[in-house]
TrEMBL record:
Protein name: Amidohydrolase 3
Organism: Aulographum hederae CBS 113979
UniProt keyword list: Hydrolase, Signal
Signal peptide: 1-19
The keyword Hydrolase is assigned to this record: yes
PANTHER family found in the cross-reference section: IMIDAZOLONEPROPIONASE, PROTEIN LONG AFTER FAR-RED 3
Residue ranges of domain Amidohydrolase in the record: 76-560
Listed InterPro entries: Amidohydro_3, Metal-dep_hydrolase_composite, Metal_Hydrolase, YtcJ-like
GO function terms (MF aspect): hydrolase activity, acting on carbon-nitrogen (but not peptide) bonds
The keyword Disulfide bond belongs to this UniProt entry's keyword annotation: no
Amino acid sequence: MAVSMLTAVLVLILPYALFNIPNIFDNTYCYTGVTTLSLLKPTASCFTVSSSGRFTDVFDLQDKRPSWLSRVIFRDGFVLPGLWDGHGHLIQYGELLHSVNLFGSVSMDDALSNVRQYVGANPDVGTAGDWIRGVGWDQAAFGRMPVARDLEDDIALKGKYIMLDRIDVHCVWVSQAVLNLLQEPIPDVPGGEVIRNPGLGVFCDNAMDMIMKVFSKPDAVKKSKFVSSAMKELNKVGIVGMHGAGATPNDLEMYESLADGEAWSVRVYAMLECGKRNTFCPEAAEHIFRDDGMLYMRSVKLFADGALGSWGSAMLEPYDDHPQSSGSLLINGSDLMSIATAWATEGYQVNIHAIGDLANRLAISALFWALDTICRTTSRSECQEIHRFRLEHAQIIHPDDQQRMFDAGIIPSIQPTHATSDMAYAEDRLGKTRTAEEAYRMKSFLSLNPVLGSDFPVEPPNPFEGIFAAVTRKSPHTGKGKGGGDEGWYLEEALTLGQALEGFTKGPARGAFLDGVAGVIQEDAFADWIVVDMPLEEMRMDDLRAVSVRETWVAGKQVYSG
Ligand SMILES: *[C@@H]1O[C@H](CO)[C@@H](O)[C@H](O)[C@H]1NC(C)=O
Ligand SMILES: [Zn+2]
């Protein structure tokens, strides 16, 4: 009896022991339902995860029993692939979590009371070595541009070092103590604006450099705190990976040291940004490919123009509500062309920030020039298929240039919540025709495999807000359309739920050369997944913007539990 049991056990175990040892350490998870986004097997009930953090099997329980040496764990809930944000700013988001939140301030009093409250909770900040930071103000809520005096006149804020970013982070509003650090007289700056009316205090685009020069920057310890706080928050909303839209060589060095640690719970696909914007600095950093997929760097971020909110985006024709201005370029077309080409020649994916239709036209020309230079024997679209150049924001694009994007397959990197945040004023800036033909395209660009994201901290990072905005073209904050109406804004550009979900999974995966590896549940892909209460397609549309994530898993490890 004992002998035959032993034989039976040996007969069963031996093949595994000899040929399949790692299986003993594998976990198999079975949930109520699994949406894989994989063409191989769109739905499943179970998947097996290797100790190296990859899916090794995806199957239905009725088709197949899990390997009996794999530990099987049954859990409730509906699984989706882990979500990616295709354009965000990690350190700045962490900084936001450690600073004054001015988003949604409805008046100057409201904004000042937020700053006062922060000072109340953090009484030591505001010194020359530790400035008070904040972000999210919008002069539209103040009825005028803010000035340094507004801060100085507040008894609780007098004398403190304060720097507050505009909602689009293309302008800063600073206090008198900061102004005192600048050399008089304060000059005008090409590609930027020193606001002088109704007084000094706001600096936009290139004029912000003047402030950044005197800014006492957070040290490495503070920055790594920003990163870990940011990652924790991102995991909460289901994010397992993000494209970092601008990491300096110093940031990358810090990322490399942090990526080994427990707190590094979000995959980062970083775009290099030279110490000096729009330059060529290949010696400053090396490409990064980690075997565990937690950090990559093989792309560069360039900037063609500013933002629409501050009339900074570079337009082919003047603004309708500012007829004397058509915004400004941060770099001219020929320089953009040569810098893009230099990076492409070094083997970098080139990603250009372009908002206005002039900026997008020049960016596309620069990318075309780069493609034609690096691939002399293949067609432009074949070359683009390999190098995957991107337009970051791709916000306002002339129909002729949209056609050029289709011809070559240029990837648009789009933030659906920018459309719904800007809908309040976009048509005033652009007029009817430009808005209808050029602005905030999503559905039109579907064949270009758009990468969707939030641009956090400019918008909140919750991908379900982005999905809601893409599907309804309504504000995820109010659930309403333009002016509080029930109608979605230019609904003809809306995506379906499935298309929007792909934009936060497969789109960013392809835009980061990770197709088949990220944003999908299939064999050999990263074992990254999230769990929600019910299938998205069964939710009421209005509940979609407030989906709560129950679990987030990265590389087979649970990083968030709701
Ligand atoms: C572009 O800008 C650079 C300097 O920033 C300048 O040297 C060059 O002449 C400009 N080119 C054109 C065509 O304006
Ligand atoms: Zn950005």
